[in-house]
Amino acid sequence: MKVLKDRHGSPVDDLTDLSGIDFDSVDLRDVDFSGKVMEGSNFADADMTGSNLAGCDLYGAVFFRAKLVNANLRDASLRGADLELANLEGADLRGADLSKDNVDGSTQLQSANLLGCLVDGANFESAIYDKNTKFPKGFNPLVNKMLLVE
């Protein structure tokens, strides 16, 4: 694993619990985060193309405008995460949990790009989307109990 640095260039020493770390606008392409706890971390505007986030605890994490193209999010917990305007094209979301968090906050998917995502077994119940959210072919947000916002 390459040396991780936060948005200020400071090295991240504890690689087991990355909760609350600010990775805003950081280049995290192809980083293996598999199985890590990253609750509430900030990945806004980060480039996470090809990163492995399989099995990660990303509860309440912020991915606003993040680039997650071809990322592996299989079996990840994204409950209450902010994925607004995120590009998840081709990402693996199989088995991921994008349902509400413990305080009834919904996962945000407004204007997110989910084209080409693998979504078998993913839980989208109560996740919020808008008219600009792009879904994989054959995906029906209503069948998946998602909530449309204007």
Essential attributes:
150 residues; 2 strands; little secondary structure; 0% helix; Pectate Lyase C-like; two-stranded parallel sheet
Please give the oligomerization state of what you see. single chain
β-strand amount = under 5%
Q: Sheet bearing the most strands, described?
A: 2 strands, parallel
Structural class by secondary-structure content: little secondary structure
* Distance N to C terminus: 42 Å
For the record, the CATH class is Mainly Beta
Task: Extract low-pLDDT stretches.
Answer: none
Q: Name the strands of the widest sheet in spatial order.
A: 1-2
Discrete helix count: 0
From the 3D structure, determine the CATH topology. Pectate Lyase C-like
Q: Average pLDDT across residues?
A: 95
The number of domains: 1
Kindly provide the radius of gyration, computed on alpha-carbon positions and rounded to a whole number of angstroms.
14 Å
H and E string: EE
Fraction of residues in helices?
A: under 10%
**What's the total number of strands?**
2
Q: Architecture, according to CATH?
A: 3 Solenoid
Give the overall silhouette: globular
